[in-house]
Amino acid sequence: MKRCSLFFIIVTIGLFLSTNLGYAETVKIGYFDLNKVLSESRRGSEAQKVIQAKGDKLNKVIQKK
To answer: pTM score > 0.70 for this model?
Structure first.
């Protein structure tokens, strides 16, 4: 029973190690500048206009109060 358990533990550890090593070379980490995306893309500029319109609307409500 102990031999069987030890065998399964060793096989499981071996499987985990072999899969991690295979994917280690393909991992890529990147970043993006949110301000640049918002200012230079078409959808970003549209989103800024919508946000600005909502902000202006809320400012008018606040000014009335």
So the answer is: no
CA dihedral (43, 45, 50, 51) positive or negative: positive
Residue 48: name the closest of 35, 31, 60 by CA. 35
**How many CA atoms lie within 13 Å of 42's alpha carbon, on the beta-carbon side?**
0
* 4-31 pLDDT tens trace: 777 888 888 877 766 555 555 666 788 8
